[in-house]
Amino acid sequence: MLGASSTPAQVRAYVREHPVRSTAGLARGFMQANLLAVPQRHAFDFLLFAQRNPKPCPIVGVLEAGQYSSPLLPGGDIRTDVPGYRVFAEGQLVAEPADALAHWREDLVGFLIGCSFTFETALADNGIALAHIEQGRNVPMYRTNIATERAGIFGGPMVVSMRPIPAAQVADAVRVTSRYPQVHGAPVHVGNPEEIGIGDVSQPDFGEAVDIPAGHIPVFWACGVTPQAVVMDSCPELAITHQPGKMLVTDARDVDYQVP
Amino acid sequence: MLGASSTPAQVRAYVREHPVRSTAGLARGFMQANLLAVPQRHAFDFLLFAQRNPKPCPIVGVLEAGQYSSPLLPGGDIRTDVPGYRVFAEGQLVAEPADALAHWREDLVGFLIGCSFTFETALADNGIALAHIEQGRNVPMYRTNIATERAGIFGGPMVVSMRPIPAAQVADAVRVTSRYPQVHGAPVHVGNPEEIGIGDVSQPDFGEAVDIPAGHIPVFWACGVTPQAVVMDSCPELAITHQPGKMLVTDARDVDYQVP
User: How far is CA B58 from the centre of its chain?
Assistant: First the structure.
């Protein structure tokens, strides 16, 4: 059985063979990553897009064309070790396979992008309860009217994740997450969802809705699902991503991404 | 006359026409940047090199091929607004012109890299005196035996800058600089220079030697001159850089690079 004390290698080996609902809470203390793979000819554009949009797209590792493993996943394989994949052709979702072997190409460059699960551990350690975990749901994510900065073919809206935070703890939540600039860092918005183009907070574009308890304020962080929204808008010939909430569990430690 | 209260635009306009010894201390509060420009066909490799080596090569901006200005230097031109340039052909230094107009090519991609001048302001604000400034010299920089992580054609030794710090303030210097991960962050080494391959601290490879006062410990930070050492080792057909200490003064504010 997988759990908080599983090693990253154990999680990767398990999800290679079995479905899981989400990797949240598994291999506690180790960094989980979003995946985006695009053909080599778009790789500079995407790496530049990430450099220009570090809050939604903090790059924590790059697997060059033909490379399937790295020190972030020793003995692993990015084509099989994510619990679920999405395949986009010309921006259209065409498949959601359990492994990406049948869709992978030799010229794909794989980008691993930091995930907010890292700072959620830090929030919990600082006494800030997370509603989606208490309610047993995936975190809700939304397309916003916040534009990313374009690079080459890549551009589109920023996706954010939302966590309801008690008013008295909003400042703590900002302080704690700002210490993790490589995993989305401080929030991009606090309060009124409409100001960032979210019409109905109970209808997330990705993940699951959560109830906002009385006295809580919705707080929004840049989200590593942004590349998927950008792929839908930018239409590269092929892109392979993880399914939201089903992350690549790496051997990097959360604490390595903490400053100061 | 240029000084701490000059605006970035004033500094850029002045150095376009006049030589200066160094940009240290000019336009206080604004970020200064290292420059490396390489042909487009090497741009992905270099951006990946920077992603893999964020301490020596924190990218703060990228000017794509044919682009000479950006919001970091409104109205400016990267071909003229650095006080002094270096031109490398196949890894060999072939010219040190006052402007780069005669050497620039349409296919060059310009990378702006964070500079330790940003955290020096923060060190001074925190009561930590800087020996090279008190002694009226450029900061000493050294090639080390610390290898960078390779990407494509780019690889080579890390270059570090050294500042003597009073033993009682070493912890403060670490704490303060670690809040600036995009401008080299925390030191890479504290103490014995020989351990990182520096045989004689009085003979820097770049910049000028400083005297180490009694009771001070040499502290070493990753340095934005690293790309120049890497170019010398990696031999791209053409590379254009700033001259060490003569930086591009940008309109970005130092405080924008501070976490948390």
Answer: 10
